[in-house]
Amino acid sequence: MKTIRSLMTLAGLSVMLFALGATGAKAQAIANPDFAGTFTLSNNAQWGNVALPAGHYKLYHGTLFGSYFVEVRGAEKGSPHGLIHVEGTDESSATKSVLVCVREGSTLVVRALEIPGLGKSINFAMPRGTQLTAHNGKHNGYIQLAEAPMLIQRISVTLNAK
After folding, report:
1. How many CB atoms are closer than 10 A to CB 50?
2. pTM score, two decimals?
3. Distance of alpha carbon 115 from alpha carbon 133, whole angstroms
4. Rounded to an integer, what distance in angstroms lies between the CA atom of residue 31 and that of residue 78?
5. What is the CA radius of gyration of the chain?
6. What is the pLDDT of residue 55?
7. Which helix (H) or strand (E) holds 89?
8. 45, 63, 93, 94: least CB-packed within 10 angstroms?
């Protein structure tokens, strides 16, 4: 039953994304977000299957087709736009809204979104094929995470007024 629901959600989302892309629509997919904010990336980032270059972004958290998603939209013309499925949620102990990222080489990988206003810590799946690495000064390069501590970076998210 859960598999059928997941497939139906994926099919509906695919049709909607195709329609938005085919028409060149710039409309926000999540019509009534629980949370809306902005953030700035200083490095390239990978968030689910969406590759984000450094720059300014808007994000929206809410439901679409009965599942929770985060919508990310670049502020500049031609910037990427994507919907990222929420993997799970926990209670947030953060005091401000942040994206929690880990490094894969020089790229950030978004792992969680902390929204203390909603009391949520939203978790995201790692992109396929991702191998977490950390810089190793002795070898002048990167090594797999199992051999070194993980670098965690927090990116501040500014709440937008509704």
Report:
1. 16
2. 0.69
3. 27
4. 21
5. 17
6. 92
7. strand 88-91
8. 93
